[in-house]
Automatic annotation (TrEMBL):
Family label: Belongs to the short-chain dehydrogenases/reductases (SDR) family.
One Pfam entry name: adh_short_C2
InterPro entries named in the record: NAD(P)-bd_dom_sf, SDR_fam
Source organism per UniProt: Streptomyces siamensis
Name the UniProt record assigns to this protein: SDR family oxidoreductase
Organism domain of life: Bacteria
Keyword presence, Oxidoreductase: yes
Keywords, comma-separated and alphabetical: Oxidoreductase
Transferase is among the record's keywords: no
Spans traversing the lipid bilayer: none
Length: 252
C-alpha cells in the first residue's frame, strides 16, 4: 500500500485531502497542530471508510521538532505498514493573518514565514530521504499570490505563498532526478476554519467573495482536496512544476 503524509489535516483542505487520498486506497499519516480532536476525528473518519490512518502532532512553525517527527514517522511506517519509506507528501498546514502593510509587525511576519515557507522547506528536506523514488509532493499555496489575487491586507501572507510557488519549481527541478513530481495548488476563498473560523464569525464575507467568483460561490474543502489527490495520483504522472489555481474563477 502506498502511504501519504498530509500536514494540517485536522480540518478544512488538509482534512479533505487526507480523506480523498485515503479513498483512493492510500494509507495516510496526518498531522494536527492545536486541534488534536480534529486530527483524531479525521483519522477515525478514514478508518470508518475502510482506510488506514495515523494522526500525529506537529508544529510546522518549529523546525526544532522535525527530527523527533521524522523518528515518529519511521516508527509509524514500520509498525502500521511494515515499510521504511512513504510515497506522497502534502505540505498543507498553515495559518492566516491579515493586516495592512503599515500595520504588519515583525512578530506576525516571522510567524507567517516560519509556518508558510520555512516549515515546508525544512520539513520536506527532513523527510526527503524517506520518500520513494517516483513519488509526488503537493504544496498548498494561495490565489492571493497570483496576478488575479491581490487584496489589501495580504502583503505578508501572500509573499510567503509566492515564495512557496518559487520553491515548488525548484523542488520539481532538483527532485526530478529521483522521479519525484512537485506541484502546488492555489485555492481561492474556501470555507475553512482558517483565521479563527472567520467564515462562521462573519457569514456576510462569503456572499461578498462569492460575488467576485466566476462560478458564483465560495469554495469548499473538497473542491481543493480532490485536486490534491489527483495531482498525487498516476493520473498526473506527467505533471510537475505546476501551480494549479483552484478558485472557481476568483476575480475573473
Amino acid at each position: 500500500m502506498k502511504v501519504a503524509i498530509v500536514t494540517g489535516a485536522s480540518s478544512g483542505i488538509g482534512q479533505s485531502a487526507a480523506m480523498q487520498i485515503a479513498g483512493r486506497g492510500t494509507g495516510v499519516i496526518l498531522t494536527y497542530g492545536n486541534n488534536a480532536q480534529g486530527g483524531l476525528e479525521t483519522a477515525a473518519a478514514i478508518e470508518k471508510e475502510g482506510g488506514t490512518a495515523v494522526a500525529l502532532p506537529l508544529d510546522v512553525g518549529d523546525t526544532r521538532v522535525f527530527p523527533a517527527f521524522h523518528a515518529r514517522v519511521v516508527e509509524v511506517l514500520q509498525g502500521t505498514w511494515n515499510r521504511t519509506t512513504f510515497d506522497y507528501l502534502v505540505n498543507n498546514a498553515g495559518i492566516a493573518h491579515t493586516a495592512l502593510f503599515e500595520d504588519t509587525t515583525e512578530d506576525v511576519f516571522d510567524r507567517l514565514m516560519r509556518v508558510l515557507f520555512k516549515g515546508p522547506y525544512f520539513l520536506t528536506q527532513k523527510l526527503l530521504p524517506l520518500m520513494e523514488n517516483g513519488g509526488a509532493i503537493v504544496n498548498t499555496s494561495s490565489s492571493s499570490a497570483t496576478m488575479s489575487g491581490p487584496e489589501p491586507g495580504y502583503s505578508a501572507y501572500a509573499s510567503m505563498k509566492g515564495g512557496l510557488n518559487v520553491l515548488t519549481r525548484y523542488m520539481a527541478k532538483e527532485f526530478s532526478t529521483r522521479g519525484i513530481r512537485v506541484n502546488a495548488v492555489s485555492p481561492g476563498s474556501t470555507r475553512t476554519r482558517i483565521a479563527d473560523d472567520a467564515f462562521a464569525r462573519f457569514p456576510e464575507v462569503a456572499s461578498a467573495l462569492a460575488a467576485k467568483t466566476a462560478l458564483g460561490r465560495v469554495g469548499e474543502p473538497d473542491d481543493i482536496g480532490k485536486v490534491i489527490a489527483t495531482l498525487l495520483s498516476e493520473e498526473s504522472n506527467w505533471v510537475t512544476a505546476q501551480n494549479i489555481e483552484v478558485s472557481g474563477g476568483y476575480s475573473l
